[in-house]
Amino acid sequence: MYIHSNTSSSVCSPPSSSSSLKSSISAKPSASDQPLPSVLFSAFRSSLRYDVFVCHNDEDSDLAQSLTSFLEHPSNGLRCYLQERDCPVGGAVSTELLQAVQDSHCWLLLITPNFVRDDWCLYQMHQVLSEGPMSQRIIPAVVNMPRTKLPLELRFLFTVDLNVNKEFGYAQVYRT
Fold this sequence. Notes:
- By secondary structure, this protein is of the alpha/beta class.
- The chain has helices at about 20, 45, 60-70, 85, 95-100, 115, 120-130, 165-175; strands at about 50-55, 80, 105-110, 140, 160.
- The protein has a five-stranded parallel β-sheet, sandwiched between helices.
- Helix 5 (about 95-100) packs parallel to helix 7.
- The radius of gyration is 15 Å and the shape is globular.
- The protein starts with 17 loop residues before the first helix and ends with a helix.
- It holds the Pfam family TIR_2.
């Protein structure tokens, strides 16, 4: 999710660059020629607006957009929520956040040093944890963070490591 760490604005901001939203990565799932998994056609999925809520600090938006492009690629078929793209102009940030969290099946927390220093990111993390603390629907994806520096609330969860092999990490997020 696009975060304004040094602002008290109560409305969503427009995307910083439309060209960066269209960025994509070369990683594709190994089964890209396979039909989409049947779970993507379930009644439960159709009851929610998004498959994945992507929460991130604004300084990490390129990585978040790259991961979202991978997840939304037609061969993967997921629907992601990114605040900078999906929040209606003039919408109250807190209201839109709560609605998007409730309208999402999974919650991806892109945990970076920027994320843990940002009170707004930590607020979002707590909103996600309150929705499904032990639901296996929270996906912490870690970049440039040792486990000892993770927020205490996330240390008991398995994480996706995006440091060593980003493409493998992206595929792991997709499978989750």
